[in-house]
C-alpha cells in the first residue's frame, strides 16, 4: 500500500474504501469519522509533524448498494496474483489470454480468461492449451465472495498487516495474503 493511504470502515466496521491521507484528515476534521488506528511514523509537514491515521471508522452508517465483482483486466490479473498461468512468471507486464480462443466461440468470462506472459501468449496463439501443448497452473474460476473493495484493491490491502483484521477473509485468497 502507498504510504499515505487510509482504510475507511463503515460504522459497522465493514470496509468502505481506501482513501488518501488528505481525504481521511478531512473526514476526521469535519467530525464524520474517528481514527481507530494510527501509523507508527508521523507525517511531517511545513507546520510540523502529526500522527497520521491508518484506519478510520465513520460515525454514521453509509448506505450503499451491494457491490458487484466486475470482470476486468485488473480483476483477472489480481485473481491470478500477477502470475502467468502457463509458466509461472510473475510481474506486471502480463496480458490476458482466452483459454478457448474467441474465434472458436470462447466467451469473455471468469472461467475462460487467465493472466499470461507475452512469451506464452505468442506460443499459444489462437489455439487451446491442449493444441499448443501447454498446461494451466490452476483452473480459473470466478472468485466466490462478495467484495467490499475492488478485487485488486482488496488483494493489495491484504498486505497491510494493520488492515487485515478489518478485511473479510476468503480461503481462495489466503495464499496471497501472507507475504
Description:
23% of the residues lie in helices and 22% in strands. It folds into two domains: 5-66 and 147-172, no CATH class; 73-132, no CATH class. The two termini are 13 Å apart. The strands form three sheets. The chain has a four-stranded mixed sheet with strand order 2-1-6-3, with helices on one face. Strands 4-5 form a two-stranded antiparallel ribbon. It is an alpha+beta fold. β1 (5-9) and β2 (15-20) form a beta hairpin.
Form type:
elongated
- Please list the strands of the largest sheet in the order they lie side by side: 2-1-6-3
Strand content: 15-25%
Helix share of residues?
10-25%
Please identify the structural class as seen in this structure. alpha+beta
Order of helices and strands: EEHEEEEHEEHHHHH
- What's the number of structural domains? 2
**Whole-number radius of gyration?**
20 Å
Number of alpha- plus pi-helical segments: 7
Stretches where pLDDT is under 50 for at least 5 consecutive residues are none
Please give the largest β-sheet: 4 strands, mixed
| Overall residue-averaged pLDDT value | 85
Query: What gap, in angstroms, lies between the N and C termini?
Result: 13 Å
Strand runs, count: 8
Quick recap of the structure?
This protein has 179 residues and is α+β, with helices and mostly antiparallel strands. Helices cover 23% and strands 22% of the residues.
Amino acid at each position: 500500500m502507498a504510504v499515505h493511504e487510509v482504510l475507511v470502515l463503515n460504522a459497522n466496521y465493514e470496509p468502505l474504501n481506501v482513501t488518501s491521507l488528505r481525504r481521511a484528515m478531512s473526514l476526521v476534521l469535519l467530525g464524520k469519522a474517528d481514527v481507530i488506528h494510527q501509523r507508527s511514523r508521523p507525517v511531517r509537514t511545513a507546520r510540523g509533524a502529526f500522527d497520521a491515521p491508518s484506519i478510520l471508522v465513520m460515525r454514521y452508517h453509509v448506505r450503499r448498494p451491494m457491490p458487484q465483482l466486475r470482470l476486468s483486466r485488473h480483476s483477472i490479473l489480481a485473481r491470478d496474483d500477477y502470475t502467468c498461468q502457463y509458466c509461472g512468471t510473475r510481474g506486471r507486464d502480463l496480458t490476458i489470454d482466452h483459454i478457448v480462443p474467441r474465434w472458436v466461440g470462447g466467451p469473455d468470462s471468469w472461467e475462460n480468461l487467465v493472466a499470461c506472459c507475452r512469451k506464452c501468449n505468442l506460443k499459444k496463439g489462437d489455439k487451446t492449451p491442449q493444441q499448443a501443448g501447454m498446461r494451466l497452473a490452476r483452473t480459473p474460476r470466478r472468485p466466490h465472495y462478495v467484495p467490499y473493495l475492488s478485487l485488486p484493491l482488496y488483494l493489495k490491502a491484504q498486505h497491510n498487516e494493520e488492515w487485515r483484521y478489518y478485511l473479510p477473509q476468503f480461503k481462495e485468497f489466503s495464499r496471497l495474503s501472507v507475504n
